[in-house]
Structure to design on (283 residues):
């Protein structure tokens, strides 16, 4: 399936996705929904197919025929932490942009995935608040599925270590040679190549509700970044499916992606409780 999708993307002038491959995002998203506790509304837990379908949309938006969308979307999928020179990540997008200006580096070059993830989780929380008030409204339910797809996509990108580093597709040595060129796609394809099942990725997951949404996201980001060296240490092990260290790291990162996605769904649901909605809002 993914080969057909990629052929179509090239045909219509869309950049190939530098993220988990489409079927990988869908699988991870299904697993996240399967992992949710009964506290989350039944309609949402029954919407795994809709959420999985929406989870690839963020990559579809990197479309060269829509230049404004393409340029703004590209940087939402990664963050090169090394470019921040040890500075602490601010809580808000525009404070981050101000930090980049101070460091004399373009924010779109650094990447903004933690902010994209926090903002889409916030949108999902607001949609959940609407659902609490109008539980039978199918339009609100559909909106929850779409927003959840974007949360899933950015959470899963953030959990892929090569989305957190300047060494996203190879490391340049002191002699100028590049080690590991092409590794990004091998890591991205691991969920599909290793034929993980949603049930095994969902099993035993313990959700973490984030008091500080951005704080939890940044903690997950640093956890992912800590595995960059481990990714490169596996080297040619990414070429096949048999390397034990590769299989272990790929599964650990896949489960981390599922946990983060599901935890943010649960966080959005809990934060929606008692959320203010304007009096003029009618559904």
């Amino acid at each position: 399936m993914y080969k057909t999708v990629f052929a179509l993307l090239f045909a219509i002038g869309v950049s190939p996705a530098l993220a988990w491959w489409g079927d990988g995002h869908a699988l991870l998203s299904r697993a996240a929904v399967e992992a949710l506790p009964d506290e989350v509304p039944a309609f949402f837990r029954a919407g795994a197919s809709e959420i999985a379908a929406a989870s690839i949309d963020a990559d579809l938006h990197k479309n060269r025929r829509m230049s404004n969308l393409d340029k703004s979307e590209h940087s939402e999928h990664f963050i090169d932490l090394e470019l921040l020179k040890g500075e602490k990540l601010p809580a808000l997008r525009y404070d981050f942009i101000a930090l980049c200006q101070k460091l004399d580096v373009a924010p779109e070059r650094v990447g903004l995935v933690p902010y994209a993830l926090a903002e889409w989780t916030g949108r999902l929380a607001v949609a959940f608040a609407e659902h609490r008030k109008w539980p039978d409204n199918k339009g609100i339910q559909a909106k929850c599925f779409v927003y959840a797809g974007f949360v899933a996509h950015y959470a899963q990108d953030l959990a892929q270590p090569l989305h957190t580093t300047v060494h996203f597709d190879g490391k340049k040595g002191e002699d100028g040679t590049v080690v590991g060129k092409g590794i990004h796609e091998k890591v991205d394809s691991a969920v599909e190549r290793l034929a993980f099942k949603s049930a095994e990725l969902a099993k035993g997951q313990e959700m973490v509700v984030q008091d500080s949404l951005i704080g939890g996201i940044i903690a997950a980001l640093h956890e992912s970044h800590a595995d960059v060296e481990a990714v490169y240490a596996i080297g040619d092990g990414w070429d096949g499916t048999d390397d034990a260290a590769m299989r272990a790291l790929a599964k650990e990162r896949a489960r981390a992606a599922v946990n983060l996605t599901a935890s943010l769904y649960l966080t959005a649901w809990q934060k929606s409780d008692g959320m203010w909605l304007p009096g003029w809002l009618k559904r």
Notes: The chain has one domain: 2-272. Confidence is low (pLDDT under 50) at residues 1-17.
